[in-house]
Amino acid sequence: MKFTAYKPLARSVLLESLRRKDLWVVAILGFLIILCAGTLGFFGFDGLEIFAKDLAVTVLGLFSTIIAVLTSCRLIPDEIKNRTLYPLLARPITRFDLLIGKLMGAVVVTWISFLILCGLTAIALTVFHVQFNVIMLQYVFAKMIGLVVICALSMTLSIYLTPNASATLAFILAFGTPMMTRGLTMSATSVGPFGKFVYATINGALPQVQLFDIGGRAVYPNWAPVPMWVIGFLVAYGMIYSFAMLGAGWLKFRKQAV
Amino acid sequence: MSIMKHWIVVGTMVGAVTLGTQANKFASIVNPPTRIVGLQAQDTHAAASLLGQFRTSFSALLYLRADLYVHGGVEMRPLTHNEELHGRTGASEAKDEAEKLDGDAAIVTVIPSEKEDFRGIFGDVERRVASYKDMAEHHHQSPTQTLPLFRLMTWVDPQFIEAWTSAGQIILWENKKESSALAVDFLKRGLDQNPESIDILEEIAYCWMKDNSNQIQPAHKFESALPYLLRAKEIGLNNLKTLSDREANSLKDNYRKLCICYRELRQYDELRKVAEEGLNLFGEDASLKMALAEATQKR
Amino acid sequence: MHPAISVENLFVQYKTKKGEIVDAVKDLSFHVQEGEIVGFLGPNGAGKSSTLKVLMGFVNSQSGNASIFGEAAGTPESRKQIGYLPEVAMYYPFLTPLETLTMYGELQGLKGPWLKKEILDLLDLLGIGNSAKKLNRSLSKGMLQRVGIAQSLLGNPKLLILDEVTSGLDPVGRKELRNLLKQRQQDGATLFFSSHELAEVDMLCDRIILMNKGEFVEEKIVASLKDELQTFALVYSNMTSLRGLTDHIVVRDIDKFEARFGTKEAMITAIGRVQAGGGQVLDVVAKEGSLENYFVETVEAAA
Question: Minimal CA–CA distance to A216: which of A105, A138, A124, A99?
Fold first, then answer.
């Protein structure tokens, strides 16, 4: 692993994204959020703090996931398609270094987009006189770790599948895992020990993205902040799962003829 | 030129926020209490249809969110048939019977409790990051906090009858002296939008019947309720063949309430008439039968 | 001392989309010594690019060995010593040449103000110093090729592997590039490049390696090859027997003949015979051999 390689790779991803005006899309989305909130405020619906926060975390979760998937899914296939991969692989770095560097770039782009959206949403929420508290900071932090998992998952899928297929599957996993987990927990009461073992294996393989979403709790005023050990667990799980995903991607990418 | 573009965007954003924060000052001017003209059902224009679909979908979503907010974000689901077969129970586990609501025995939280969760630490973490409470600690937030949501719902879709009637119930739930008057006031706005609604008429009548503001003349509340019940009965009878199941149920309730009103006002002839009429329409109904028996006896 | 490039019994296979196995390189062996400029020639599909890709580690060989200065080809250690120019490469359209080269330089392990100075010097040397801060997407094909050449020269690599190096360059650019590469050779670099431009090969290379259909055909020292390809013509009057010297005689007039010889010595002997037979030498011409003809004939013979 060559740590000095990650910064230039990540910087190139960020610069490309900035100049391609990807972040403008984010700014426009944020602007629309403010506009909608402003419109709602304009018609005088006081007392909608919980609804406004609920809407905000839903929109943030949706858009940040879309940005994470679309940014990560195209990085490696685009490098191959545009033949920009050759001069990169001609450098004294391993393909694993390349994957990490590219992932870091995708994560930085996603994080910046997410934080811009958070900032604009926070402005929009002031229309509803929302008070910000510790759990909201925890929400932002946990979500950022969750986005790393989604980026790693999407990038790995893009090594095995076409960009469109990988984006579709990444969306299914990112948005569908909570539902699949619900299905498993609902039916788990009626299966035996072996069934539970199979369920636990399936559940372990799925990216537990719902664990990184504290939004459902943050929108209500009466919930206490999440314990620190949970935040520590999320960081550890996020890192382990992301590295496992990268490893799975590397298994194919290291021998892939380009 | 490029800098100018940036400033236009930034300026527009700032403008939108400023407008939003100052919105209340304009509210009375631009936001009439309810819309006078709703979307016409016969308007088949594509845009109108699309707008209609958006309105109904959005207001239905808000209705579901309102239920979630009352539970502090704790998502619930009914027990599956399989779970019931395996002896799983819902709210019957609640320690405090006073907090147990009707039907909760068949409801569990979407996130399972620790003892029913096979996921180990993943489950433990989810119970701490999501809005999770064990059913044993099941309690509700004050539903009045959802009133703005109902206001939004009825603004988006003024034909959303359940939203009007539920909001009326919530206002009444506070059980204050002025609650009935406030609920009636709100429901009358709904009636303006839906003058043929049996449900709203019946709900207004119910709000009057629950009025406890006039202790000197307790019969007053039944007198106030009666015109609404009679109007609802008239609409129901005029549209008997086209009533939906919900409206038919409301009509049945309407007859029961009419019986209560006539009984409280000691108008036994009227009581007998409506009880008979109700029984003719709805067959075996214990309440109406009792009302008929009482009317016959009192005569 | 290890050779700059060593390839032994290399086999490379590809799988087509239909699942068929195609042999791209078959039992290829050659060496490139340090300080040489070697041209790697062959028609389209000969296996040149596949061989270069194995040397860079982009493709794995089925068997055989390839090494760079003794290090197994394709490893980061071997790539430390290589500057590589791909046949067709695009450079990030939304980065400038300066940013592009900074990224490649940093990946090479270079950093700081020295890197920036080297980049600006290289861009100046390649004639695109003025475009250092323009986006790559706004540059012409030739300018992008110069960006590519600049990235391959970054960090003064000991070995330059260049695939179709002059592609997209105008005649002036080609000449400048030739001078630059010659200069690098004088500074101790080894150059190994593939090209279809035989004139470039002629002007630049010390040696050529010829491939066809994945197989090694032959290798030649360019100076010797030129000698081999050179022909001589003698125009003379009065019929004289040149038997034993050439069979290639063309009657150009009633009393005017043109004889062609493969060597200078044969022609000098023929001049003696013409003069001895009372003939008159009207013209003597030395003709440069055509590398193109050699290429075509050799490839056809190998097919």
Answer: A138
Residue pair B32/A43 in contact (Cβ under 8 Å)? The answer is no
**ipTM of this complex prediction, to 2 decimal places:** 0.88
Tell me which amino acid residue C234 is: L
Instruction: Give tens-digit pLDDT for A98-111.
Output: 999 999 999 999 99
The answer to whether A75 touches A102, Cβ cutoff 8 Å, is yes
pLDDT band at A128 (very low <50, low <70, confident <90, very high): confident
Ranges B193-202, C138-147, C238-247: which has the least confidence: C238-247
Nearest C-alpha of chain B: how many angstroms from A236? 13
Mutate one of A139, A185, A237, A240 to test the B interface: name it (highest B CB count within 10 A). Answer: A185
Map tokens 């709210």 to a residue. Answer: B91
Beta bridge partners of C209: C40, C219
Task: Fill in the amino acid letter for C180.
Answer: L
In chain C, what are the domains?
Answer: 5-226 (3.40.50.300), 231-287 (3.30.1490)
Interface test with B, best of A49, A53, A58, A127 (most B CBs within 10 A): A127
Cα separations in angstroms, A138 against A58, A66, B128, B234, C137: 16, 21, 12, 58, 42
Q: Are B and C close enough to touch, i.e. 3+ CB pairs under 8 angstroms? A: no
Chain B neighbors of A234, CB-CB under 8 A: 125, 129
- Interchain proximity B88–A189, CB inside 8 Å: yes
Per the DSSP assignment, residues forming a β-bridge with C190 are C159
B255, B282 Cβ separation under 8 angstroms:
yes
At the top level of CATH, the class of B158-298 is mainly alpha
Backbone φ and ψ for C65, nearest 5 degrees, come out as -125, 145
A51/B21 CB distance under 8 A: no
Query: What does the domain layout of chain B look like in residue ranges?
Result: 72-137, 158-298
DSSP state of A163: H
> Do the chains contact at C94 and A20, CB–CB below 8 Å?
yes
Question: pLDDT at position B136, please?
Answer: 58
Q: At what angle do helices B198-209 and B220-238 cross, to 10 degrees?
A: 170
* Each residue's pLDDT tens digit, A10-68: 999 999 999 988 888 888 887 787 777 777 766 666 677 888 888 889 889 999 999 99
Count CA atoms closer than 13 A to A226's CA, side-chain side: 31
Q: Taking CB atoms and an 8 Å limit, are A83 and C79 in contact across chains?
A: no
CA distance C299 to chain A (A): 28
Residue A83 to residue C89, Cβ atoms within 8 A: yes
Kindly state the tokens that stand for A142.
Answer: 């946990």
Percent of chain A with pLDDT over 90: 64
Angle formed by the axes of helices A228-253 and A134-160, nearest 10°: 10
Write out the two tokens for A104.
Answer: 């870091």
Closest Cα in chain B to A28: B9
Query: Which residues of chain A have a CB within 8 Å of the CB of C93?
Result: 16
Nearest CA in chain C to A254: C58
Cα distances (angstroms) measured from residue B39 to each of A36, B201, B247, C34: 22, 21, 21, 85
For A12, the closest of C14, C103, C108 (CB atoms) is C103
Contacts of A11 in chain C (CB under 8 A): 103
